[in-house]
User: Fold these one by one.
Assistant:
Number 1:
Amino acid sequence: MFTLARRYSSPSGSSNDGLVGWEVRPIGDSSRYVGTITLQSEATLNALTVEMGKEFSALCREIAHDLCTGEQQVDAVVVTGKGDAAFSAGGNLDWLRSLRHNPVHANADLMMQFYRSFLCVRDIPVPVIAAIHGPAMGAGAGLALACDLRTASPKPKILGLHFTKLGIHAG
């Protein structure tokens, strides 16, 4: 059995008070369900940070485990960003700029850990849909592209891959 309103815990102890939220809702009047992962940093346009990556990867691992063991039952998972302004502005630029004096090999290791913390969405064993309602830039675009399907609003400049402008690799 599973609990319809089950909420996953973030390090702060609440599922929707952290940087990443999780909610399960029925699909219409049916007995089928969809889960929603929400990036919850509206003030930063849902910019991806190391801390958010830790919450996101822990949540994805827990969802995958619960789906495989039958503790949770959803037919699909939607990934979206909180607010109307952006799906995700990408990696936090202040953090990226702080890395500029590090040796290349150290940054390569840091960036691979950072990317893996979001690419773990690929481990969820049901279809994962990116609901892109605003710009998805850099690592945010990478997260959207890692999902099985993407649906986007008609806003211009919905995906931006500007890694070379920042002098970093695209993962």
Note: Residues 135 and 158 are 4 Å apart (CA to CA).
Number 2:
Amino acid sequence: MSDRRGYVRGMVLYLESYIKKDAKAVVRDGRLEPILGVFNKLVASKATDHLGIQLLCTILETYDAATMATYMNAIVRVLVTRLQAAKTPKYVQNLLYCLSVIVIRFGVETLVKSLDALQQGLMAMLLSQVWINEVPSVIRPTDRRICAVAMADIACATDLCRTEPYMSLWS
């Protein structure tokens, strides 16, 4: 796939159309895991990470929490591993958008559980070191609004911000 970079964008658009057209068939026929493998491969490269997150966001927007529950920890692990390995401004903006979609679609608790499964307190670390600092730099206005809604959910919709270590982030 990476040998033919000119085809990657078209392939991602094809997969997105396929998922949107018949989402139930993708799951029924066991094709979701290979598509998540494509996401994993795309995110690993700086040249195609935005396409991987675009594909992931389509998946997240299409499937419900029950379908995504088995994959959420692995998805978050891939995203955080890439952030630690090669943090770029483009990747951070796309990552914030993707994490915001997770918060809005599946709830704050889902993201916190997935991040804390990797490392205890990772959500607080991500909020303090990346999320709060980088949201103003998100370029696309729609993405910035989605990030703002997700931050409002994190701050208000749960008791998360009333406990340590999160309480100090909002003061």
Note: The two ends are 47 Å apart (CA to CA).
Number 3:
Amino acid sequence: MYLVDPQGNFSFFANLSVDDDGAGDEDVALVDTINGIGFNTEDGLVYGIDSGNDTLYRILPNGFMQNLGVISGPIGNTSNFSGAFDNDGNYYILGQNGNLVLVDGVEDLEPGEGTTSTLLAQTDVRASDIAISPSDFLVYLWDQQDNQLKTIDPETGAVNVIGPAANTSNF
């Protein structure tokens, strides 16, 4: 993990290793990759998911990670590409299959406890990253299938195109 200062300079911060109590005495190397990373404004911590087994991790301020257990429910699509939190601490994941899910109650989890997920929408979008607007509460994404900026309404599942026209941008 690296820190980036306001001038854009990188500095090494920590290896991503699992240490559930954060004391540094376990320090087990993380085997797989973490994806669907999001910053929770409620507790000031970063969360991510191992897409291979749907294990939820919390990254502590010292760089160690807590294994919070497996997420059950519709998240099990083995390709949880993008994640984001809203300002209320709700953790949203958009999978490669287009499913938008809500991961339940992450900030209160103890190591190994696990949690559930709730399917919010089945869409036909593919995005490497998402963001949630604090003003309109929509999920914003760049759909890689047709190169368009889109939104998903988590309440209704409605997908709306913001622009540009399909396949007119190489961004």
Note: The longest strand covers residues 64-72.
Number 4:
Amino acid sequence: METHSWVANNNFAAVEQHAPRGAASSIRAYCPQIKNHQLSWWVTFFNIKNMFELIDTELKLNSDKFKANKLQKYFKTGNGEYGEGDIFLGLSLDFLNQTAKKYKDIEFKDIKKLLKSKYHEERTFALIILVKLYKNKKTDKKKIVDFYLNNLATINNWDLVDMSCYKILGD
């Protein structure tokens, strides 16, 4: 397993300084019981190199196969059905909203990766963040609208449209 140079000294401050922006504080928020000397192991174990990988790991660690199976049926993901091909992790919207609060510094390149994910909840997560960014008074709203319109192909289910379209395009 590769050890990143910013992890090698087992120091929370070093991880905070050199890890993907927000990674150390996000790990700390997700697992407050992690001690400074354990943080570097956690980042190394999951081989986290960027914010997308951190979010992807956190969402997958909280997945629920039972809920995922129920969601697969609810969203009609079988052959020929409207949600064909969607894969679910089994995460609640409440969990996604709470988790998104930790990632307010996410960059558009990572949001784009989330929007292109095969997992429905990762696309949902990306849209939650976009809506939060759009509501922020300091954000360039045109940039968010353009980003949203340029990624419409990934907003491919009724719930994704319902949760984001009117909040970003309807303003």
Note: The chain is about 60% helix and 0% strand.
